[in-house]
Specification:
By secondary structure, this protein is an alpha/beta fold. It folds into three domains: 156 residues, Distorted Sandwich (Spo0b-associated Gtp-binding Protein, Chain: A), CATH 2.70.210; 183 residues, Rossmann fold (3-Layer(aba) Sandwich), CATH 3.40.50.300; 95 residues, GMP Synthetase, Chain A, domain 3. 27% of the residues lie in helices and 19% in strands.
């Protein structure tokens, strides 16, 4: 049964924003007292919170799909929709949050850190918020936008002061059990430790944490054994303790060869930029199991060579507790010096947040298509406006056209070579596809058409004043010509009658 998980993929969905409301207030003697549609509520966020009481990502391994609450719909009488309930997910301190491509989003190093990993959608505006002196009673409202939906990778890197490294069955779990209150599983077979164990050690006035990292073998940095899976837990440690087994019975193994293998694996493991490599950190050597006579003799034999390499060597026994006090106090001195150096280090550069420089809110990308060029409009604002538009409402479509025109989309399409009737797509993928017809002017605010309609989408047959005047003049000219022709005929008839009488 799995009891420890340090890497998991979360499938998250933030809450969707609620739709705005279309409503007109009706009172006695005031059947149309003005719009009163409320706004929709914002969708809930998904927030990661670092909690020192959490030590594993096990709960997310069993249930990786998490979602926040949706925002409520707006209502009449200027009532806004309820805000969606946010979802807080607690993670261990030291959790690194990455996107699916592996880029680091945030490193949860400090207790209590909060990170909005999936922002909720925006609530749509009701027609009361869309009203203005020129559009007094909008017949439409904006829709809520969907919340962020996608995957994130959580990777736990243990935050400890000291890491115990060494071959399987070297006695690392026994050592952490002897110097702290931790009670890891201990057995006489390799790879007993399947996940890092943490213990708190008190050495005089100094308190520090020790991590027992699962055993390393040759080739661990290339994926052999369990070492590669857990070497990342060594990244955040201040000091390393090489636990060497002086009582091993395996042929071809001795403390010196074991140390060489471990050092080679630590050197082959790449640490993130800005961190000190594993081999450059303070290192101590603990020759374990010296309670066995043969192991004591071997420890006396290899100690001079280890000291010649520059290591501080301690003979220890987790059974008799020999040498453990000296080891813990030496580690306490290392941790104390490190903390003093950190405290005296210059303060990090102050971060100044300045407003973002003016940027174009959109871009037009020309793509080749089977039946001609496709002009794709990309940008946060155009995509969001499309999501907020109810395409079943012609007035809402006209409002979208006005917003895009004011943003400068039409001018940019002209510059990109678009012609009337060209195919335009808003957003990535399929997006919203339409045939572009440039507008001469924006007149949504001046329209007096029935609510919910846009006369610009209709083929108007109403004649203009000049057309009526021209038709009237043509009619008068035709009547005058008909009267003249009739008068001419009458004169001709009278002339004929007079000639016959003579």
């Amino acid at each position: 049964m799995v009891t420890f998980v340090d890497r998991v993929t979360l499938h998250l969905r933030a809450g969707k924003g609620g739709n705005g409301c279309v409503s007109v207030r009706r009172e006695k003697f005031k059947p149309l007292a003005g719009p009163d549609g409320g706004n929709g509520g914002h969708g809930g966020d998904v927030v990661l919170v670092s909690d020192p009481q959490v030590t594993t990502l096990l709960s997310y391994h069993h249930s990786p799909h998490r979602s926040a609450g949706n925002g409520g719909f707006g209502m009449g009488d200027n009532r806004s929709g309820a805000i969606g309930e946010s979802l807080e997910l607690t993670v261990p301190v030291g959790t690194v949050v990455k996107d699916p491509s592996g880029d680091v989003l945030v490193d949860m190093l400090e207790p209590g850190m909060r990170f909005v990993v999936a922002p909720g959608g925006l609530g749509g505006l009701g027609n009361a918020s869309l009203a203005n002196p020129k559009r007094k009673a909008p017949g439409f409202a904006l829709l809520g936008t969907p919340g962020w939906e996608g995957d994130v990778l959580l990777e736990l890197k243990t935050v400890a002061d000291v890491a115990l490294v060494g071959y399987p069955s070297a006695g690392k779990s026994s050592l952490i059990a002897a110097i702290s209150a931790a009670r890891p599983k201990i057995a006489d077979y390799p790879f007993t430790t399947l996940h890092p164990n943490l213990g708190v050690v008190q050495a005089g006035d100094v308190r520090f944490t020790v991590a027992d990292v699962p055993g390393l073998i040759e080739g661990a940095s290339e994926g052999k054994g369990l070492g590669l899976e857990f070497l990342r837990h060594v990244e955040r440690c201040t000091a390393l303790v090489h636990v060497l087994d002086c009582a091993t019975l395996e042929p071809g193994r001795d403390p010196l060869s074991d140390l060489d293998v471990i050092l080679a694996e630590l050197a082959a493991y790449p640490v993130p930029d800005g961190q000190v490599s594993l081999l450059e950190r303070p290192q101590l050597v603990a020759l374990n199991k010296v309670d066995v006579p043969e192991a004591k003799d071997l420890a006396d034999l290899v100690r001079p060579e280890l000291e010649a390499r520059g290591f501080r060597v301690f003979d220890i026994s987790t059974v008799s507790h020999e040498g453990l006090r000296n080891l813990t106090f030496a580690l306490g001195d290392l941790i104390t010096r490190h903390r003093v150096e950190q405290a005296s280090a210059p303060a990090p550069e102050r971060i100044v947040i300045r407003p973002k420089a003016a940027e174009r809110d959109f871009s037009v990308r020309v793509e080749g298509g089977t039946y001609g060029n496709i002009y794709r409009i990309l940008g946060e604002k155009p995509v969001r406006w499309v999501q907020q538009t109810d395409f079943q409402n012609e007035e809402a479509v006209g409002y979208l056209a006005d917003r895009l025109e004011r943003l400068g989309v039409e001018d940019q399409l002209f510059r990109s070579g678009a012609t009337p009737g060209a195919t335009v797509v808003i957003g990535e993928g399929d997006g919203i596809i339409f045939d572009w017809e440039p507008s001469v002017t924006s007149a949504a605010e001046l329209m007096t058409a029935p609510r919910g309609t846009d006369p610009r989408l209709l083929q108007s047959t109403r004649r203009t004043t000049s057309e009526r005047r021209e038709r009237y003049h043509d009619s008068m000219d035709a009547k005058a010509a008909a009267r003249a022709e009739l008068e001419a005929e009458r004169r001709a008839e009278r002339g004929q009658d007079g000639g016959d009488a003579e």
